[in-house]
Design a protein that fits this description.
It contains eight helices and twelve strands. It has about 230 residues and is α/β, with parallel strands linked by helices. Strands 2-1-3-4-5 form a five-stranded parallel beta sheet, sandwiched between helices. It has a four-stranded antiparallel beta sheet with strand order 6-7-8-9, with helices on one face. Strand 8 and strand 9 (about 150) form a beta hairpin. The model has no long low-confidence stretch (mean pLDDT about 90).
């Protein structure tokens, strides 16, 4: 069954362009012209992904993202005309999985959409890592802390799994962008910092046998302790 993508964008010409390119790639496309309509269609259509504009009348993209994240981990890619780092970081902190700065380049949009779905696709065999009070299941995209499933966006789980797959190895931010995001990322390395910050909020105080650690001036590692 084709993946279903909801485009929430107030500019009709952009919606039409996105729809044409996404349908050409085999996706089913639903459209909404403002945030309120987007919320309604998200609830009724249950899409596999949202392409969400930031600046919209009635209800902006930040508000839509916040409301959806309160109930769902469905992947969200923000579409924004604001290129400032602060705006991009704010979107990621609200739970967006990615962002694309306008004017949109369709090959970039398609690459990002494919990358998200590729990360979500199950492998032939389960990929599960277990540590003290922590289980990371990449196939099911589950994060289990102290025996309880904790909601986390797919990219957070992918990043934690990648780091924990090589305990005590230090990865640079550039390496993490290349390997976790899975394509030539168009953003900056602060993307990694934001996702690590969100993971640490979930993992704080869980165990004294491992730690998601910053290696200053280099990057990050999942450190295990004897």
């Amino acid at each position: 069954m084709p993946k279903k993508i909801l485009i929430v964008e107030d500019e009709a010409n952009i919606r039409e362009l996105l729809r044409l390119y996404l349908e050409r790639e085999g996706y089913t496309v639903i459209e909404a012209e403002n945030g309120v309509e987007g919320i309604k269609k998200w609830k009724s259509e249950k899409p596999d992904m949202l392409l969400l504009d930031v600046m919209m009348p009635v209800m902006d993209g930040w508000a839509v993202c916040k409301e959806i994240r309160a109930e769902s981990d469905v992947p969200i890619i923000m579409l924004t005309a604001k290129g400032e780092t602060a705006d991009r970081v704010s979107g990621l902190e609200m739970g967006a999985d990615d962002y694309i700065v306008k004017p949109l380049e369709m090959p970039e949009v398609i690459a990002r959409v494919r990358a998200v779905f590729r990360r979500m696709a199950p492998d032939d065999a389960p990929e599960k890592l277990s540590f003290d009070n922590l289980v990371i299941d990449k196939q099911a995209y589950d994060l289990v802390i102290r025996g309880k499933r904790v909601d986390a966006p797919p990219k957070e789980i992918e990043l934690l799994y990648y780091l924990a797959s090589s305990p005590n190895r230090v990865f640079t931010r550039a390496q993490l962008l290349d390997d976790v995001w899975g394509f030539d990322y168009f953003g900056d390395t602060r993307t990694v910092d934001v996702h690590v910050k969100r993971l640490r909020e979930k993992l704080e105080g869980v165990s004294d046998k491992w730690e998601l650690k910053t290696v200053w001036g280099v990057g990050y590692k999942f450190e295990t302790k004897e």
